[in-house]
Amino acid sequence: MAIHLYNTLTRQKELFKPIEEGKVRMYVCGPTVYNYIHIGNARPPIVFDVVRRYFEYRGYEVNYVSNFTDVDDKIIKAANELGETAPEIANKFIAAYHEDVKALGVMEATCHPRVTENIQEIIDFVSALIEKGYAYEAEGDVYFKTREFEGYGKLSHQSVDELRSGARIEVGEKKQNPLDFALWKAAKPGEPYWESPWGPGRPGWHIECSAMAQKYLGDTIDIHAGGRDLAFPHHENEVAQSEALTGKTFANYWLHNGYININNEKMSKSLGNFVLVHDMIKNQDPEVIRFFMLSVHYRNPINFSDELLESAKTGLERIKATFENLHHRLANSADLSEDIDSWKETLANYKKRFITEMDDDFNTANAISILFELTKEANLYLQEPNSSKEILELFIQTFEEIASVLGLDLMEEKELLDGEIEQLIEERNEARKSRNFARADEIRDLLKEKNIILEDTPQGVRWKRK
RNA sequence: GGCGGCAUAGCCAAGUGGUAAGGCACGGGUCUGCAAAACCCUUAUCCCCCGGUUCGAAUCCGGGUGCCGCCUCCA
What we know:
InterPro entries: Cys-tRNA-ligase, Cys-tRNA-synt_Ia_DALR, Cys-tRNA/MSH_ligase, CysS_C, Rossmann-like_a/b/a_fold, tRNA-synt_1_cat_dom, tRNAsynth_Ia_anticodon-bd
Keywords: Aminoacyl-tRNA synthetase, ATP-binding, Coiled coil, Cytoplasm, Ligase, Metal-binding, Nucleotide-binding, Protein biosynthesis, Zinc
Number of strands: 15
CATH superfamily of the largest domain: HUPs
Strand content: 15-25%
GO cellular component, one term: cytosol
Subunit structure: Monomer.
Strand order of the largest sheet: 4-3-9-10
Mean pLDDT: 92
Number of domains: 3
CATH class of the largest domain: Alpha Beta
Distance between the termini: 42 Å
Number of helices: 15
CATH architecture of the largest domain: 3-Layer(aba) Sandwich
Low-confidence stretches: none
Radius of gyration: 27 Å
Catalytic activity: tRNA(Cys) + L-cysteine + ATP = L-cysteinyl-tRNA(Cys) + AMP + diphosphate
Shape: elongated
Helix content: 40-55%
């Protein structure tokens, strides 16, 4: 078996073949930093983080590049509204992005390039396109000549004629053709700008990704990913720019994730039906959000609601409880000479199935169902009166291996209990021994009010926070 | 108008030719001093509807209905 992934370009699942043996060059479109990200914006970082982790798990070295669009109309607008400069706004929300995404368990990208740090590369890119006859200047703007690029529409599977009928030229635009798009925008008074051969201005939206992908990953990359809504026009335009310039394939595989929906409708900033990650994680364990997102295949839409999140939370807690129980039992385990080999085989099978599912276009939904089956298997084992240290460790290791690819940390950090509570637990133990159950229950209720849940097991009392 | 996606139990969700994974919720039981947790059992003769292909279809083909998305900034 090997990794297969669904390629938007060909509309089918394909065997992954890297450009360079053992390496993956991956570019994921990052946010325009004019606001906190919402839950929908969080889906690409999460699902493609898993894609990256899985490639690494399978022995690939992944060069994962994700950009920040830190100059743009919306940033300028936000800056004006808030009375701050555009760079201040951008820096603020870049920091917020890192914070949010870290809470969601997303690994740092290999590289996080910013548009404003790559202006020269962009200018060079645009100049080269003009030289090659793929772009033209018009009063300080530069536009890409869509009809010069033969494959235009091949990624989003739109015919140029159809697109043309839907496109329109806004009043005052200087495009020769409605489908042409801006590579460089002349600065209006008061806007941030950089000097260029066409006068002061700033990059258009699409050119930055082409220029930065090329700079950090080369002319041809393995995987280019982003939200479904970026396929057109953003990614289509990237293909046009990059391939027009280099004459080479820009990206071998295009991955697009489905949307997060609210009441069956796309969550988006323009519809106003969004929930910010920043706000949500104040009341909700971010890991639950991650787990919930991974419980659906990345290409399918996810309907988002508190109820669904709650049910995901219950499920995740069950897995975690079992994982903790395994650790708890380790302290009371013996070196039993049981049939280790058959257990090794059983657990190796879980891993094998996990790999099979993930190889099939990163089916995290099925990967999670395997984690649930493993949980059941472990619970069954834990019911036996005696447990072998070696087998417990095998279980733990299997859990950890699968969870780490999904980016889940099953081990809860437990702050130590304060002395008073420990005292109460001890007192309750004594009460139970002397069959003073009234007092024992009283203490259990008391602790429950402090959000400490007690569980009596054959191996002694165990506590957890609610 | 063009292109595309989806429709599976009360809810969520895998499954793209071989006879319905997994989770949440519900009910019954085991364990427990009682709980909690866990485990066991039960829950879709059937996968939106109609027709076709096939020994065999939720899965393929044709038609229909409903919902959603892209074609414009958007993850």
